[in-house]
Amino acid sequence: MSDADQQEVLPALTSIVNWVGELRDAPTEGVAPMAHPHDLTLRLREDVAAAAVSREELMKNAPEAAVGLFTVPRVVE
Amino acid sequence: MAAISPFSDLASLAKALSGKAISVPELVQIFLSRIAADTTNSFLATNPEASLAMAASAQKRLDSGNSDGRPATGNGPQGFSLVGLPIGHKDIFVTRDWPTTAASKILKDYRSPFDATVVERLELAGMVGMGKLNCDEFAMGSGNTHSAFGPVRNPWDLQAIPGGSSGGSAAAVAGGLLPAATGTDTGGSIRQPAAMCGLTGIKPTYGRASRWGMIAYASSLDQAGPIARTALDCAVLLSAMVGFDEKDSTSLERPSEDFANGISEPVRGAGDPRLPLKGLRLGLPREFFSDGLSTEVRQAIEAAIAELKSLGAETVDVGLPRTSLSIPAYYVIAPAEASSNLSRFDGVRYGHRTAGPKDLEDLYCRSRSEGFGKEVQRRILIGTFVLSHGYYDAYYIQAQRVRRLVAQDFDAAFRSCDLIVGPVAPTVAWAIDAPIKDPLQDYLADIYTLGVNLAGLPAMSVPCGFGNGDHKQRPIGLQLIGRKFEEKQLLKVAHHFQRATDWHQRTPTMGASE
After folding, report:
1. CATH number of the domain to which B453 belongs
2. Phi (first) and psi of residue B300, to 5 degrees
3. Which of B98, B265, B305, B500 lies at a C-alpha separation of 20 to 30 Å from B294?
4. Is B165 a catalytic residue?
5. Which residues have C-beta within 8 Å of that of residue B508, sequence separation ≥ 6?
6. pLDDT given for residue B2 in this prediction
7. B207 to chain A: which residues are within 8 Å by CB?
8. Size of interface A-B (CB pairs under 8 A)
9. What does the pLDDT look like over A5-54, one tens digit per residue?
10. How far is it, in rounded angstroms, from Cα B439 to Cα A19?
11. In a domain, B294, yes or no
12. Chain A nearest CA to B359, separation (Å)
C-alpha cells in the first residue's frame, strides 16, 4: 500500500475497530462461540480418486507458467 | 409470434412457450436485445452465441415433450417447467461460458474451467444462461457502488442505487432485461437489492444451496438464492437450485423439495379460502420498528402487515434484543472469514499479477494492492486484525459468542410465532452519487438482514410499496424470516400476499432502455 493509501484507510479502520469494540462489553459469560449455523461435523468422503479438471485446463489462467509449474521470482539464491 | 412483455414473470413465459405462442430462440432474442440496450450497467458479460445454442437445445427438449426439468420442479399443480426460460447469474458464480470476475480487477478475464453447482443445476433444468451480472466486488457492499466495473443504476430511478451486493441481478430483472437471476446473500445481498428494486428474492437456510463454484466471501454465512418477480417463480427456481452436493463440505444431506407444490393452499391446510393465513402467528420484533426506521418504510410495512392480517394472520410482539449487536458481530466475523478466503488471490496461480515484481513478497503485495478495491482491502485488513494474536479472543471469539446469542434470540422468538415479519432495510434506495461517507453508515443499513445470516435462517423480500415525495419511484420490501428449513411456508405466505396485492406487478415507468 502506498503512503497516501495508508493515510486514507487509517481513519476508516480506526473508526471500524472502535465501533466493533462495543462487542467487548456484551455479557457473554458461559456462551459457547458459534462458528457455524449448524452444529455439524464435516463430512469425509471415501479415499478414492474422483474425476477432476486436468492440469492443463486448470493452469490456463496462470499469469506465468513453465513446464506445468507456476513460476514466481527466484526465492532461493 | 405473440407480443411478449419483457416484464412477464417466469410462470407466464413458461405458459407462452408450452402453448407455442413463442419459441425459445425468439424469447431469448427479446432479452438479448433488451440487454444490448441496457443503461443500468447491470451486465459484466454476455455471450449471445452460447445463449442461442442453449435456446436451440431447450427448444428441442420442449418439442420432444421432455419438458419437466428436474423431478423436483414443474410436477406440482402450481409449478411449471423451467425449460427454455432465460436467467442471468451474479458474477460470483463461476461459469465456463462467460468470464468470472467477482466484479474485481484481480479476476479480470478469469475463465473458470467448471460451472458452479447452482449454475449447472439450472442448466440441467433447461434454463438458458444469459450472462454475468454486476455486483459489489467479492459481494462486499450494500449499494453496488463497490464494483471495479462501475456502479449499477436502479431502473426505477436511475439516480438511485439498486441495492447490493446482488445489484446487477436485481436491476436486470427490474429493468426487464431478464425474468430472473441468481444472487448470493451473506448479510442481506439478495433481500436488500430485491427490496430496493421491487422484486421477490429468497435466501434459503444455510447449507441448502451448494457453495461449490460460488466465490467465497464469508463461508459460514454465504448462501445462493433466486431473485424474480413473484414468490411462485422463486419457489420453482429454488426447487431446482438447492439439494445435497457432495462437492460442498457444508452442504446439508437433505433433498430438495418442490417448493411450489401446494403454494396456493391455506397455511393450515383446509379452511376458508378467503382467509388463507388463518392460524398463522406473525412475530413483529420491536427492535425492527424502533428509531432508525424511516417513516416511509414504516408506513409501507405497517400497511403490508394489515394486509396479512386481513388474510387471516394474527400478530404477536416478539423481541430480538441483540439486533444492534448483530452488526458489529457480523462486521468481525465476515471480514475475518474474508481475509482467509481472499488470501488465495496472490497473483501466482490465477488473476492479476503486477508487472516486474522485484521479489516474491513484492509480487504478493503489489498484485493484491493493485487488484483489490478499497472496500475489499478494508475488510481484509479488519479481518486480519481481529484474527491476530492478542485480539483474537477479544474480537473474533467474542463475536462468535454474540453470534450464538443472536441465534438463540431467534429461537426464543419462534416459540411464540411462526414467522417473523419486518422491513428489509431502514430506508429506500439512496442516491447513487451520495458523497462517500464513513463506511460505518453503509454497515448500519444492514441492521435488519444480518442476524438471519448469523443464525443461518431462510428469509425473503416481497415488494410492498414505494417511498414518499421524491422517493415515489423507490420500492420498499417486506422481509419474512422463517425457522430453519421452512422456506415453503415463507413462499406460501408471500404467494398469498401477492394474490391480494399488485406491488410485484408494477414496472418502472422510466424503463431501463428509455
Report:
1. 3.90.1300.10
2. -65, -40
3. B500
4. yes
5. B155, B156, B157, B174, B175, B198, B473
6. 64
7. 37-38
8. 135
9. 888 889 889 999 999 988 999 999 999 999 999 987 888 888 999 888 89
10. 11
11. yes
12. 5
- Cβ contact B404–A32 (<8 Å): yes
ipTM of the complex: 0.94
Specify the number of domains making up chain B.
1
CA-to-CA distance for B194 and B461, rounded, in angstroms? 6
Instruction: Please indicate, yes or no, if residue B150 is contained in any of the structural domains.
Output: yes
In which residue are the cell numbers 461517507 written? B437
**Extended beta strands in B221-266, E state:** 223-228
Q: Which residue numbers of A have CB closer than 8 Å to B's CBs?
A: 1-2, 5, 8-9, 12-13, 15-17, 19-24, 26, 28, 31-38, 40, 42-43, 45, 53, 57-58, 60-64, 70, 72-75
Chain B residues with beta carbon closer than 8 angstroms to that of A12: 378, 438-439
In three-state secondary structure terms, B502 is: coil
Q: What nine digits make up the cell of B229? A: 418477480
Secondary structure string (H, E, C) spanning B28-39: HHHHHHHHHCCC
Is residue B333 one of the residues assigned to a domain?
A: no
Place of cell 485480539: B391
Neighbour-count burial of B397, counting CB atoms closer than 10 A to its CB (0-12 exposed, 13-18 middle, 19+ buried): middle
- Please state whether beta strands B200-203 and B223-228 pair in parallel, antiparallel, or not at all (unpaired): antiparallel
- In the DSSP assignment, the letter for residue B394 is I
Is the pLDDT at B399 greater than 90? The verdict is yes
Convert the pLDDT of each residue in B140-164 to its tens digit.
999 999 999 999 999 999 999 999 9
Q: At what angle do helices B10-18 and B231-241 cross, to 10 degrees?
A: 80
Q: Is residue B388 part of a domain?
A: no
* Residue B304 φ then ψ, to 5°: -65, -40
Range of the domain at B190: 10-321+408-505
Q: What is the length of chain B? A: 514
The bridge status of strand B86-90 relative to strand B128-133 is parallel
